[in-house]
Every structure is written in C-alpha cells, then in structure tokens.
Specification:
By secondary structure, the protein is an alpha/beta fold. 30% of the residues lie in helices and 24% in strands. The protein is globular, with a radius of gyration of 24 Å.
C-alpha cells in the first residue's frame, strides 16, 4: 500500500511543479546520455541521483525553502542539475549573468539575498572582488573541471563534485505549492538598476508544456522531438536558456552542454554528437556560418531557433545555403521567454524558398496559450493588416507578475490586463507578428517612423555586408535621420564604398521594400558592432558614440 500524508478518500490536488517534469525521462529513457564538452558523459538516471545529492548538499549547508542559491557557470551538466535540484527543494535558483559589470553582479546578489554562491572556478576572481561587499554571509561552492584546489584567498566549502559525492543520493522532494517562487534573474535596461524577474513552478511547467507542443506537434519545419540531439548556444543564465533545457529534459533527448563558447569546440560537439537542435542569438550564428571550417561540414540535420534580436534575411539565407534549418523565436526576460515562433503553418509549408525565408525571419505566430495584440497609446487594439504599427502586448499564464521588490516598475509593465513589451510591431492577416523596433530605438524622421530593423534586414542581404545596425542621429530639418553602422565581410573592405550601399538601399526603396524617405544617407564602416552582455546589438552605446 502506498504510504501517504493525504486525507484518505480525497483526490490528489496535483501541483504543477518542476519535479514532475523530471519524472518522465527517468521513467522513459533513464539510460539516455547527457554530455559535457568532451570531458564527461552520464545518464539521466545518474543525473537524477546527482540532483538528489545536490539537494542534500544544500540542505546540509543550511538552505531551506525560500532561500536563494546563486549560480555562475557556463552551459554545463552541473548547471542543468541546479535547474532542477534548487527549485525542487523549495529554494530559489538565481541564474547570475557573469557578463555584467562587477557592480551590477553585486547589486543582483544583494537584491536577491543569495545565501550560497555556486561558481565556476573561472569566475572566482569576480566573487573574490565582491565577497566583502555582500550584505549577507554567503557560502561558496566551486565548480571545476580539474581536481586542483582553487587558488583563492576566500574560504570555500569545497568542490561541487566532491561535495555531491559525499551526500546521499536519495532526497524526498516535497509536493510544493505550484505558485512557489522557483527562479529569479536580473535584466538590464538602458537606464536604472537591473530588474529582478521571477517565475513560479506553475509558470515554468506551463511554459515547458506549451513550447514542447509548439516545437514538436505541428507539421512544419524545424521540429524538436525525442529523437533529436540538443545543444544550447544561449547562456543558461539568460531566461533559463529560453526554457529549452526543461523541454529537452521532459522529452528525454540526448543533451550536449558545450561549457565555454569556443568556435572550434562548438563545431566539434555539433559534428561528433550529430547535434540536431540548438538555439542562439544572431551573432553566434553569424560567427559559425562565417567560419572557414563550416564550409567543409555537413550541417543539413541542424535546426536552430534564432532569438534575442531580429534575424536578418541575409543571415538566414547564408544558413540555408549551408543546409541549416533556421527560424525565429521571440520573447522577453519578462515572458519566460518564448511567446512566438516563426514556423510556416498550413498552406505556407509548401511555399517557395524565398517566401519561406520571409516567414522564418518574421517574429512569428503566438505559441499555444499566448495572446498577442498591438495597441495604440490608449491601449486600443489596432488592425491586423501587416502595416499598422503599435506597441506589442501579451497575455499568457507564465508571464512574470512584476519585478522583484519594485512595485513602481511592475505597475508600468502591466496595464489593461496585458504585459506591455516596449516593442513596436504589426500583425498581418495570417496572424504573424513582426517586431519593427523597440520604442526607444525607432527612428522618428519628419513625423514618420522608420524601422531600424527593416533597414538592417535589407542591408544584410548585400553581398559585402557581414553585420549592420541602424540608429537615429540628430538632423536640423527632419529631427532625426537614419545612419548605418556596417561591418564588411573579409575580402570586401577595399571594394565597397558608402555610395555603393546607399545605391543598394535606394534600389530596395524603388522596389517598394521600404519607404523612399527611409533610405539612409550616412554609412560608417566599423570593425565590430557593440553588443550587450547577452549578445544583442547595443544601440544605447552606438547612439552615445555617434550622436
């Protein structure tokens, strides 16, 4: 007879909690592999044991329900264990963006109230710099691929793997209230301190189920199913690597974690493990498709979701020429994050290649359980005609309720029952959303709005252009005019002039691809474009430098 603390004769009030996600692969495919670089391979069964050991280790160190455990690591099997063990025991996982400044990291650790920091040895210098400025006493656990004692002056509890080995492999994970806070992380904007975003078990489970349905159940390109081999190329600190590790674990797929992003290692893992599904920002894909080594590889089985910034059509075409299946995913830190996917659906599946490129570079269709609208300044819905721009707003059961300890900015986030994105976009007759700009990035010229993303998308298709960015610069007559910052491909740096690029953009306007008033007059060649800590174009820095 099953022993239970529940009232006899009463139905089980089933909570949507993260431990329920892990139960499925442990039952279906306990011997499936999880790989870390070329250093370590183990099974889901062993992962489940290590998840229990991690919970016991943290409990021994004093972690209780509601406490926060911060993690600084590359994409690894250890990070995956933290994704499960920490929230499953009722604590809160704080995924720390180690690309932030030391001062910003300090703020997030203090604001979240982290009691334990689990850090990769590479980030010990950051922790050493901050340890005396933390407002609460913390314990430090070190993750390392070697067995050498960490060279640090601060006291540490020990190595992660050693501490796990000494902990019991059985842990009675409780049935938590599904609304229990599970994760938190911090998103940076153009002004002010980082904002704490948080999600409950219920939100993460519903997001996982909806993304699994959206990626795997519909007849379209790029499907993600249990026979795929998964490798993330989005940092696990960034909105749970878009939540895909939870989806991959639920499906029981073979998972490959690359650790520190190094082009040679990434390509080696993709080829040696026959990786079929990944996700990344455009800059990572750009780095890979322009690598000379890629030309010799067969990447025809690789499917990649692109998010974090608009995927230029030129980049999508370059990926397709290598056999890679690419399509866009869209969301925000505040949305957990996936809101839309740019799949061709219905009759659009049989479109010609050029039409498919147009579809996969759109922002996409809402995934199940998501409602998307565009509204005017008074929150009134606007026509779905593919032209009328408005602010993009959402509803879904996993959107963050607000910002941690920040009621004022939480009120600004939610109005009229919708989460306001700060993005400008339109919705076409088929229901596809197209983001045209951030409200703060749209270029206002002579009373008209010019989409910086449209300019970048068109210029990306010029044979000499590797990357581009459009910003508004002051103009005495029009208020603002667009300027293009351009990174040229190797071999084209001496053969292309700004006048050539302006002629190319003018030809696009002549074809009706953008308004004539939107053609930029200024083009500046740069060696690289400023990027944020998560690989997005840093328009704030560009405007500061060039305005």
């Amino acid at each position: 007879m099953i022993q239970s603390t529940f009232d006899p004769g009463q139905p089980y009030d089933y909570p949507l909690i993260i431990k329920k996600l892990l139960a499925t692969p442990l039952l279906y495919v306990p011997d499936q592999q999880i790989v870390y670089r070329d250093l370590h391979t183990y099974t889901y069964r062993e992962m489940g044991q290590r998840v229990a050991r991690l919970a016991n280790m943290l409990a021994r160190m004093g972690i209780e329900a509601g406490d926060t455990v911060a993690v600084l690591d590359y994409d690894s099997h250890r990070y995956l264990e933290c994704f499960f063990a920490i929230p499953m025991m009722g604590a809160v996982l704080q995924t720390v963006n180690w690309r932030l400044s030391a001062e910003q990291i300090l703020y997030t650790l203090n604001h979240a109230g982290a009691k334990i920091i689990i850090t990769n040895a590479d980030f010990l210098p950051i922790v050493e710099r901050l340890i005396d400025q933390l407002q609460q006493k913390v314990k430090i656990v070190v993750m390392s691929d070697g067995d050498q004692e960490p060279d640090t002056a601060i006291g540490v509890e020990g190595f992660y793997d050693d501490l796990l080995a000494s902990a019991p492999e059985d842990y009675d994970f409780p049935d938590l209230d599904e609304n229990t806070k599970a994760t938190t992380f911090y998103t940076t904007g153009t002004t002010g301190l980082p904002k704490g975003v948080f999600f409950s078990h219920r939100q993460l489970v519903l997001h996982t189920l909806s993304v699994a349905v959206a990626l795997g159940c519909y007849e379209t390109l790029g499907r993600f199913r249990s026979n795929d081999i998964y490798m993330p190329l989005t940092p696990m600190f960034h909105v749970h690597a878009w939540g895909i590790p939870y989806v991959a674990s639920l499906l029981g797929v073979k998972q490959v974690y690359p650790g520190k992003y190094e082009p040679e290692m990434l390509l080696k893992l993709i080829m040696s493990h026959k990786v079929t599904f990944s996700h990344c920002v455009p800059t990572i894909l750009q780095m890979l498709v322009t690598s000379p080594a890629v030309k010799k590889l067969d990447l025809s089985a690789w499917k990649v979701v692109i998010g974090g910034a608009r995927m230029p059509k030129g980049l999508a075409r370059a990926a397709r020429e290598l056999g890679i299946t690419v399509f866009t995913g869209y969301g925000m830190s505040e949305t957990c994050p996936v809101i839309t996917l740019a799949h061709p659906m219905g009759r659009l599946i049989d479109s010609d290649e050029e039409t498919k490129l147009d579809i996969v570079t759109k922002t996409g269709l809402p995934i199940p359980l998501v409602e998307v609208e565009i509204v005017d300044d008074s929150d009134r819905p606007l026509p779905h005609d593919g032209k009328t721009p408005g602010e993009v707003v959402f509803r879904a059961p996993w959107l963050t309720a607000g910002y941690f300890k920040d009621s004022e900015r939480s009120k600004q986030l939610w109005t009229s029952g919708y989460l306001h994105s700060g993005d400008v976009g339109n919705i076409d007759q088929n229901g596809y959303l197209q983001i045209t700009d951030r409200i703060k990035d749209v270029i206002k010229s002579g009373g008209e709005w010019i989409s910086s993303l449209d300019l970048e998308n068109i210029l990306s298709q010029h044979e000499a252009v590797a990357e581009s960015a459009a910003i508004g610069i002051p103009d005495p007559k029009w208020g603002e005019r667009p300027m293009m910052l351009v990174v040229l491909k190797p071999g084209h740096k001496d053969g292309v002039t700004p006048a050539d690029l302006q002629s190319y953009m003018q030809a696009a306007a002549d074809k009706g691809l953008l308004p004539r008033y939107a053609v930029p007059e200024k083009y500046v060649f740069v060696d690289e474009l400023p990027k944020t800590s998560v690989g997005k174009l840093d328009k704030k820095e560009m405007r500061r430098k060039f305005r």
